């Protein structure tokens, strides 16, 4: 582990002393976001691991709304139902929660979870947060009703349980294949259990959930021999006639197929903790067994290896800041390193969007792409804090997914290799373009660009045919048309940028024209981005504060989407009437009085500051837009307001869904003092730092240091900036300047410097002015 040293000034100011600060891994608190609207999980996982082994406190939508339990665990819940092996971190939708394991002690084994409001009614158990330990790669809790100490750890494709049973009482495990997050009737299509002669338990299940027809396989081994077992099918309905699964036949000691399977495993009275090694595969049971063999070792060995992996990954940034902020930022970095998760097996095989098995050659296939969220800051962050191979894996996985897609387009919102068609846009395009324009290679750029163009030209998707023909998506033909028009235009700009850099001028010219289509949804008479009818008229009635699913906008309203043209904010400012009017409109957004508005019907609308909604992604770049109007000092004020109100080191410390790392990546960038407003521009807009000092340990051994001289709660403004000792008058920094290594130094002040960054030449990129 890396031990960082920070200088603590003696109060008298006459001396300084060195004090040790916790290593990055010790500063992470996985409980942040497990309450409120964060939707994170506290369990064990490796960086980008296939397995997310975590407690589920409630998997029944009949007891509570599924939305609040999207990650399986909710801090407010009093009981744990069991420990399952797959979870999303901060998603706004429920699924996964595969292969639930629950230990039990004593003579009676309960087969149903029971009612969380009635202790003892089933196998679920009460627990106390005081007994929990959550660290990167490790989770532990005491199950009070069973008097069992449960510990969890995970490798890349395996999870390892360790259960300490009370002395003198029989030890049992219940494997429940019926449960799943968002577990509505009929979700489990088919499942199987097979006990092999060597004591390995293998199995599978197919689910019809958010991702249709998802198949998952597992292999499970135990540190103690079974003394008994029972496979039970709790469903008496007619057997499913589709995918039957690979029966083991004579190779199996016992097997059972069905739609509601459970396994009771008995171990007698144990004299040592029981360890359970579990591997997953999306391919077949043989793949799960091979994945199990590929990561040998018991609980402590796997825990130690994963701790080292986390120490290395988190060591990409060295941070000196007060403990609460340091915990916030390192936890944010931790959350940003959970996805896109590994999906290919140790031998390279994976199940793709066509439900067929393919082989990843020379890269690791990744899935869990929440692209509408993560193109903004999550993927740009990974290009800086991870080895280039991570981004190469991402790009190649996206392109390979397009090759195997029945529709021939890039993923929209994919997990476990399956497409969900959730959200809008073709935001794999900016992820690929941003990587290419930053000089990351190792993938077929021509194939990648062809995939981007194919996605942007696929007329049946989301009104794209109308968009191509008319220059906008028509609201009388396609819902959320205003949002789709401006998001498509941004994606088109990234395609143009990459094509231009590759010398493919015809593509560049065509998509540069399309990049300006955002103007076709801008109503100059009102100053809003609005939905238009096929006739060309803007739809009425119009209320810029209205938020309704399937309306003119996607998870937002005109206040947020009227700022979404990150490729051309200068063009927007001119249409608004200039700098002063743009600043006034930004201020009106943040200062809006919401007291007469009710957004309780909209699940993702959280973290409101006026009409700025930090809990959802369309607002994430908006605080930085003052820079484009020549008022960076106003950005500095707004960032202080956002960080103070939207993040804290507590279970309810995230104002909204973390969305597979986007909320967290925003904080990491903002804490460093800059943010990628327009991925693909190769620029970061300068805000203000929230840490005293940070060092980016970049790929290639280079280091980029950020220093904030005089930073304090009072000194929230930037008085001046230097880059490698020379005054920096512009309010942005280039990606190549960061990658080259060096020093970005801020001088902080209690009063704003209204001249710094105010000139036209000092402002960040906009396509219409360069």
From TrEMBL:
Residues 288-749 form the Glycosyl hydrolase family domain. Residues 28-281 form the Glycosyl hydrolase family 92 N-terminal domain. Keywords: Glycosidase, Hydrolase, Signal. SUPFAM superfamilies: Six-hairpin glycosidases (SSF48208). GO terms for cellular component: cytosol. GO terms for biological process: carbohydrate metabolic process; glycoprotein catabolic process. Residues 1-17 form the signal peptide. Its EC number is 3.2.1.-. Residues 107-126 are annotated as: Disordered. Residues 109-118 have a biased composition (Basic and acidic residues). It comes from the Bacteria. InterPro entries: 6-hairpin_glycosidase_sf, GH-type_carb-bd, GH92_a_mannosidase_put, GH92_N, Glyco_hydro_92, PNGase. GO terms for molecular function: carbohydrate binding; hydrolase activity, acting on glycosyl bonds; peptide-N4-(N-acetyl-beta-glucosaminyl)asparagine amidase activity. This is GH92 family glycosyl hydrolase. It comes from Sphingomonas lycopersici.
């Amino acid at each position: 582990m890396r031990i960082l040293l920070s200088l603590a000034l003696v109060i008298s100011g006459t001396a300084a002393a060195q004090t040790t600060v916790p290593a990055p891994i010790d500063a992470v608190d996985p409980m942040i976001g497990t309450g409120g609207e964060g939707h994170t999980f506290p369990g064990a996982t490796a960086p980008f691991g296939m397995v997310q082994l975590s407690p589920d406190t409630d998997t029944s939508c009949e007891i509570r709304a599924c939305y609040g339990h999207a990650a399986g665990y909710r801090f407010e819940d009093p009981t744990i139902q069991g420990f399952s092996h797959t979870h999303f971190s901060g998603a706004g939708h429920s699924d996964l929660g595969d292969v639930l394991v629950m230990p039990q002690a004593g003579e009676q084994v309960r087969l149903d979870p029971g009612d969380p409001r009635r202790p003892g009614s089933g196998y679920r158990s009460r627990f106390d947060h005081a007994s929990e330990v959550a660290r990167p790669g490790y989770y532990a809790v005491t199950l009070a009703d069973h008097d069992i100490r449960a510990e969890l750890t995970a490798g890349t494709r395996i999870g390892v349980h360790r259960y300490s049973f009370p002395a003198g009482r029989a030890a049992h495990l219940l494997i429940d294949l019926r449960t799943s997050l968002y577990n509505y009737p009929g979700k489990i299509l088919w499942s199987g259990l097979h006990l092999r002669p060597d004591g390995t338990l293998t199995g599978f299940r197919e689910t019809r959930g958010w991702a249709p027809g998802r198949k998952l396989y597992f292999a499970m081994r135990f540190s103690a021999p079974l003394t008994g077992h029972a496979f039970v099918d709790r469903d008496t309905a007619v057997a499913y006639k589709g995918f039957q699964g690979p029966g083991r036949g004579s190779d199996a000691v016992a097997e059972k197929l069905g739609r509601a399977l459970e396994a009771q495993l008995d171990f007698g009275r144990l004299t040592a903790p029981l360890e359970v090694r579990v591997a997953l595969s999306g391919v077949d049971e043989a793949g799960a067994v091979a994945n199990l063999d590929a990561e040998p070792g018991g609980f402590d060995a796997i825990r130690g290896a994963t701790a080292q992996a986390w120490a290395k990954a988190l060591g990409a940034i060295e941070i000196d800041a007060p403990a609460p902020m340091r915990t916030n930022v390192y936890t944010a970095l931790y959350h940003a390193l959970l996805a896109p998760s590994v999906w290919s097996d140790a031998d390279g095989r994976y199940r793709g969007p066509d439900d067929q098995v393919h082989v990843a050659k020379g890269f690791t296939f990744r899935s869990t792409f929440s692209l509408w969220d993560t193109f903004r800051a999550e993927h740009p962050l990974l290009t800086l804090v991870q080895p280039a191979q991570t981004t190469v894996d991402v790009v190649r996985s996206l392109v390979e997914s397009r090759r195997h897609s029945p529709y021939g387009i890039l993923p929209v919102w994919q997990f476990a290799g399956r497409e969900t068609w959730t959200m809008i846009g073709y935001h794999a395009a900016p992820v690929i373009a941003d990587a290419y324009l930053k000089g990351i290679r190792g993938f077929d750029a021509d194939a990648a660009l062809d995939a981007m163009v194919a996605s942007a030209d696929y007329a049946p998707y989301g009104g794209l045919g109308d968009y191509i023909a008319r220059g906008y998506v028509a609201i009388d033909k396609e819902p959320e048309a205003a949002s789709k028009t401006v998001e498509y235009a941004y994606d088109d700009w990234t395609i143009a940028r990459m094509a231009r850099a590759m010398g493919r001028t015809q593509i560049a010219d065509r998509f540069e024209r399309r990049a300006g289509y955002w103007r076709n949804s801008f109503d100059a008479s009102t100053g809003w981005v609005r939905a238009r009818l096929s006739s060309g008229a803007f739809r009425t009635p119009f209320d810029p504060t209205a938020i309704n699913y399937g309306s003119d906008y996607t998870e937002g309203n005109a206040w947020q989407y009227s700022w979404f043209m990150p490729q051309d904010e200068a063009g927007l400012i001119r249409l608004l009437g200039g700098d002063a009017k743009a600043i006034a409109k930004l201020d009106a957004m943040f200062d809006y009085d919401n007291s007469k508005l009710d957004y309780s019907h909209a699940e993702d609308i959280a973290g409101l500051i006026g009409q700025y909604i930090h809990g959802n992604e369309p607002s994430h770049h908006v605080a930085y837009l003052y820079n484009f109007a020549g008022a960076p000092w106003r950005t500095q004020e707004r960032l202080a307001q956002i960080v103070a109100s939207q993040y804290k080191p507590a279970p309810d410390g995230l104002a909204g869904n973390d969305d597979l790392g986007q909320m967290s990546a925003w904080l990491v960038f903002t804490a460093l003092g800059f943010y990628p407003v327009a991925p693909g521009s190769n620029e970061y807009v300068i805000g203000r730092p929230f840490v005293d000092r940070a060092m980016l340990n970049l790929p290639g051994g280079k280091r980029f240091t950020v220093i904030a001289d005089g930073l304090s709660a009072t000194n929230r403004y930037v008085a001046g900036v230097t880059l490698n000792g020379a005054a920096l008058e512009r309010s942005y920094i280039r990606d190549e300047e960061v990658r080259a290594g060096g020093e970005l130094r801020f001088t902080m002040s209690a009063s704003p410097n209204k001249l710094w960054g105010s000139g036209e030449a000092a402002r960040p990129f906009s396509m219409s002015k360069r």
